[in-house]
Design brief:
The protein is an alpha+beta fold and 154 residues long. The chain is 42% helix and 19% strand. The protein has a four-stranded mixed beta sheet with strand order 3-2-1-4, with helices on one face. Helix 1 packs across helix 2, helix 2 crosses helix 4 and helix 3 runs antiparallel to helix 4. The longest helix has 19 residues. The termini are far apart.
Length: 154
């Protein structure tokens, strides 16, 4: 394993052991539930919007190291961003984790530590669960339906 892969693995393990922004938020923060039945990952995502700006973002739940690290890294990366910026970053992240392994992964800062999941297709859903759940929380008015990685629209 290369030194870079070792570093990426250590970052993922650190975010799994000590997830950032791992807490509930009271209303009026929006919330959505996410579930990945293939791995058993479950999370509740909280988004506090100030107009179109993500003022605060947090999550609670349980799951594999990749799922928890991805949610932790995502909440760090998106605070202070607009919803449009978050959607563009989601598109770039999704492309990174689903692109063929023989193509360049692109630089997404700390999120790049998850580029290796594209070598393991079943782990893509673990890495993208928090992102799909965020989209549901931002778009929903009221309580959105739970998001499942097995939903064709996710």
């Amino acid at each position: 394993m290369s030194e870079l892969q070792d570093l990426y693995q250590e970052v993922i393990l650190d975010h799994n052991r000590r997830p950032r922004n791992f807490r509930e938020q009271p209303p009026p923060a929006r919330r959505a539930e996410g579930f990945n039945p293939l791995c058993g990952d479950r999370l509740t995502l909280y988004v506090d919007l100030d107009g179109e700006v993500i003022r605060d973002l947090s999550f609670v739940g349980s799951g594999c190291a990749i799922s928890k690290a991805s949610a932790s890294l995502m909440t760090d990366a998106l605070k202070g961003k607009t919803v449009a910026e978050a959607e563009r970053l989601f598109d770039r992240f999704h492309e990174m984790v689903t692109s063929p392994t023989d193509t360049a992964a692109g630089d997404l800062g700390k999120l790049s530590v998850l580029a290796g999941v594209r070598e393991f297709p079943t782990r893509v859903k673990c890495a993208s669960l928090a992102w799909h759940t965020l989209k549901a929380a931002v778009k929903a008015s009221g309580a959105p339906a739970p998001v499942s990685t097995e939903d064709p629209s996710a």
